Amino acid sequence: MGKKTPSINSSSTADIAFLLLCYFLMTTTMGSQTGLSRRLPQMPDPNQKQEDIKINARNIVIVKINSSDRLLAGSEPIDISQLKDKIKEFLTNPAEDPSLPEKEVKNIEGYGPYAVSKGVISLQNDRGTSYRAYIAVQNELVKAVNELRDDFSYRTYGKAFDKLNEEQQTVVKAAIPQNISEAEPKDVSKR
Amino acid sequence: MSKFGGNKKKEVPALSQGSISDIVFMLLFFFMVTTQMRDQENKVVVKLPEASEVVKLERKDLSSYINIGPPTRQFQAKYGTEARIQLNDSFKETSDIRDFIAAEREALSEGDRPLMTTVIKGDSDVRMGIITDIKQELRRCSALKIMYQARKAD
């Protein structure tokens, strides 16, 4: 009983841990992935007869981007910095302008009746448009909708949209829908 | 004189090395928690476009990636400098997307399949033509949930 068990030399655990650390440093990537989430429309059935959904002309704004990344919103050329305000005006229609989209009073669960805009933003691009410009325009459109949602949630709940709970977010999303349609590809450059 | 003379008998005590492993393990856990496994080798150069309204990708395990961009320098001699599509470590054509999506969908469990997101990782100088083709192909195989990957601009 006199002998002690010799202690295990632990200085090499550091080396083992360093090896593991190096392995993880080499094989992993840092940072999370972010982006703009979208939902593509269903592919129309080729056997079925093409039925165009009739949208009233006042309810749609067509944003076109040509091959030199210039913008056309509605019928007039526009700079990207003005696009957001134009879209916001289009979606809210504060002065009840007959050329801007009509509103439909819908009963939103958890909120009550609210006049929801029927406006749809249609985004069309050319094959030569650069991806950068396309994302920039998408971003402006999302920004317009997000700012309207923020306004609405401040008015109703006194908080920013991303601070709301899930239920309230659904209400806000129902009140201000994000209707961005990515149209069938068209050659915008040919007129 | 003991201040200078007495050094022969006293030695500086050796630093205990037992805590080094703890420190390194802490570092290791930090990296294990904050990083993700690199899933593939990049064969195309992708410089992501910037956007301010980006959202985080929710379920990384349910996403499949389509990289679009000019080939990296080592592949330029073979594939040129035109933008190409990379799926799973190799250069592919638009027509291969269908098989790729089918394979990715097969790998997921039944309940997760509708939640599958296709992440389009496009270089910012790519023309929209190739992206439109990809979008049409994705619609054809009804992988409708997509995400345009972008960097958060400050």
3D structure, described in words:
The complex is a heterodimer of chains A (about 190) and B (about 150). Chain A has a five-stranded mixed sheet, with helices on one face. Chain A has a two-stranded antiparallel sheet with strand order 6-7. The mean pLDDT of chain A is about 80. Chain A has a domain at about 70-180. Chain A has helices at about 10-25, 80-90, 130-155, 165-175, and strands spanning about 30, 35-40, 60-65, 70-75, 75-80, 105-110, 110-115, 120-125, 180. The radius of gyration of chain A is 27 Å and the shape is elongated. Chain A is of the alpha/beta class. Chain B is α/β, with parallel strands linked by helices. Chain B has a domain at about 50-150: Nucleotidyltransferase, domain 5, CATH 3.30.420.270. A five-stranded mixed sheet of chain B has the order 6-5-4-7-8, covered by helices on one side. A two-stranded parallel ribbon of chain B has the order 2-9. In chain B, strand 7, helix 5 and strand 8 form a beta-alpha-beta unit. Chain B is elongated, with a radius of gyration of 25 Å. The termini of chain B are far apart. Classes of the chains: A alpha/beta (about 190), B alpha/beta (about 150). At the A-B interface, helix 1, strand 1, strand 2 and helix 3 of A face helix 2, strand 1, strand 2, strand 3 and strand 7 of B.
Indicate the CATH topology of the domain at 50-152 in chain B: Nucleotidyltransferase, domain 5
Give unreliable regions of chain B as ranges.
Answer: none
Beta-strand share of residues of chain B: 15-25%
Largest sheet of chain B: 5 strands, mixed
Structural class of chain B: alpha/beta
Count of strand segments of chain A? 9
Give the N-to-C terminal Cα separation of chain A: 100 Å
Total helix count of chain B?
Answer: 5
**Helix and strand sequence of chain A:** HEEEEEHEEEHHE
Gross geometry of chain A: elongated
Distance between the termini of chain B: 65 Å
Number of contiguous helices of chain A: 4
The average pLDDT value of chain A, as a whole number, equals: 79
Overall 3D geometry of chain B? Answer: elongated
Average of per-residue pLDDT values of chain B: 81
Largest sheet of chain A: 5 strands, mixed
Instruction: Give the second-level CATH assignment, the architecture of the domain at 50-152 in chain B.
Output: 2-Layer Sandwich
Quaternary structure type: heterodimer
How do the strands line up in the largest sheet of chain A?
5-4-3-8-9
